[in-house]
Amino acid sequence: MAEKKEEQTKQQNPEQNSEQKLEKPSEQSSVENQEAKKPEPPKSPPKERPQRQPSVFFRALSQIAFLFLLASLGVTIFLSALTLDFLDLYPFRHKIPESLQKRWPLSLYYDFVQLHQLPEEERYQQLIMQAQEKYNRLITEGSSDLENRAKALEDSYKALIRTQKEQNMKESEELRKLREQLALDQKKLEDGKIDLENRKVAIDELSQRLASETLNIESSLIRFMEQENRLDQVRNIAAQMESKSLARIFDEVPDDQLIYDILSGVEPGHSGKVLGNMDPEKAGRIMKLGQKPLSLPEPGPSRPYVPPSLQNLINDTQANLR
Fold first, then answer.
1. What would the pLDDT profile of 214-237 be if each residue is shown by its tens digit?
2. Which long-range contacts (CB under 8 A, 24 or more apart) does 5-14 make?
3. Of 96, 86, 82, the residue nearest 117 (C-alpha)
4. Pick from 121, 209, 262, 298: CA 20 to 30 A from residue 287's CA?
5. What CATH number has the domain bearing residue 310?
């Protein structure tokens, strides 16, 4: 019930509520202004840090750098002035006293200007003369460095000559050995040629001997065949005769070999009867002939004829050997 009454009072007095709300912020702003008007406490001043002194090395380095820059500036100004004078933009070299002209570094500048003012041919001649004078001065004066270099070059040259000499000696020795080996090979080749020629001669002789032997064998065979042809008729007659009469005839024939050849072609029974009726001594000689090996008859007189097959064989052999 009490709450309902309060709500009713609020609804009845809205203006009073709004006025109370306006009074509250005004009171808050007045409080803030009073706080702002209060004096602030004094602030303490900031403490200054002590400055660090540069080191001795840094000061020396800075001084050296300053002096270097100052010297570079002076040299630049000096060279710029000399350039202006050399280009005749602002000539002043004639105004400098001669005593200063002969001092360094002006003496180098005046020599340079004097050299480049000459004509081209004379300038080249002057440069050549200066180079020659410098070269002569270096030669006449000399130095330990040049002497050491000359000595080193001389030693290296001697070592090179010694090495080259040793190499030449080795090469000459190898060349001598090769020449000796070549001479031996040539001698062997010549000996081989002589041996080959001797062998060719020996082969020719053997070929000739073979041909002659072949001819002898051929003639012996021909004689043997001729004898066999002649003995065939005698053997046929002997085979038809009686053994006693044939034995009497053989006793009178002096050629035991002929009797043996005839009896060898007759039947064994008939030849045995003939030998039994013959003289025992002569029959014994004939029986001994049967123990000897067969041999061809002696060759007759040599003939100029050579069989074609044998002649072709001899010709091919000689052609292959040559």
1. 777 766 666 666 666 667 777 788
2. none
3. 86
4. 298
5. 1.10.220
